[in-house]
Amino acid sequence: MVKVLIGCPTYEKYDYCVDEWLDAVKSIIEFSSENEVNAEYLLVDNSKDNKFFEKLEENGINAIKSKHYSNVKDRIVSSRNILREKVLKENYDYFFSLEQDVIPEKDILMKLLSHKKKIVSAYYGKQQELAVQDKETNEIKKVKIELPIVWLKEERGVRRAFPQEVLNRGLIKVEALGIGCMLIAREVFEKIRFRHEPEKKAYDDMFFCLDAKKLGYGCFLDSDIEVKHLHKFWEKENL
Question: Containing domain of residue 199, as a range?
């Protein structure tokens, strides 16, 4: 039987969506079990204090408390590597990285497993603020549009994809993906740790994909599976 760990880092700001996430995860676990996949979940709380963790425990939610770092990227990387170590030590076949604010359907895990890829994700987006120029007035305005958390290769490096480039195109290979709804084979974790580079803006998901590519792994997107993302905008000082 295939063994899968579902999980992600969390902290107190995600209190608003814990219940919805947990309901989705329990449905995934139940549906997967009916299809001979043994799935379990774990949250890693990196909040500054223990209040959120204690609330999770009181509600019977499977979670552990990790160290709080002042830098948000350090917190995320540390928590993800705790999950990575659990996958390796307890002999899971896959890690299903499912961020707290990403809410998929119950069959998501079975669909991703069916591709038999080492790294594969579903499609989800996030609002992004862009500067656009009005063709008539030449005025520059800032607008928010929903962009997939997918990067495509271009001459100067990589760029964020637009929905029309990557949505409803079946299983496609891309340069990099957000880790919010990503299935990762144990084999990849045996070779790669999560990391970030302090001097660069990119988060750990980008470095994970780049490191995987260097080792010959492709990053695949099932662009026919679109999942709900409850992303909120938070000021940097509140992260």
Answer: 2-123+150-234
